[in-house]
Backbone:
């Protein structure tokens, strides 16, 4: 993959699409693994002496957009999980408070 910048970017785009799908399901470990692979590919382009052409820059913009979407999905899932944990804690505290009163129905 090292020779053709378009091939590198196409593969990075494929990984970005896969990352987005995985992020929708919340598999954080898999997203981290794929992100490392994609970052390695993108870093390989940084050491090139020549500038990227318009098509390559468009591919980079697509990759960045997909990355933003995946991050947004993972952040949303994290916040939802935090809310669920908070609500479970509220429920446990309520049960504990009511059980201390000794009232029965």
Residues:
């Amino acid at each position: 993959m090292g020779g053709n910048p378009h091939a590198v970017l196409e593969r990075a785009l494929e990984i970005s699409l896969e990352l987005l799908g995985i992020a929708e399901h919340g598999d954080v470990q898999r997203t981290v693994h794929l992100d490392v692979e994609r970052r390695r590919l993108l870093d390989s382009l940084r050491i090139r002496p020549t500038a990227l052409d318009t098509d390559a820059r468009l591919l980079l913009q697509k990759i960045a957009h997909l990355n933003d979407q995946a991050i947004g999905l993972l952040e949303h899932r994290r916040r939802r999980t935090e809310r669920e944990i908070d609500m479970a804690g509220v429920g446990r505290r309520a049960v504990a408070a009511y059980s201390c009163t000794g009232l029965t129905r």
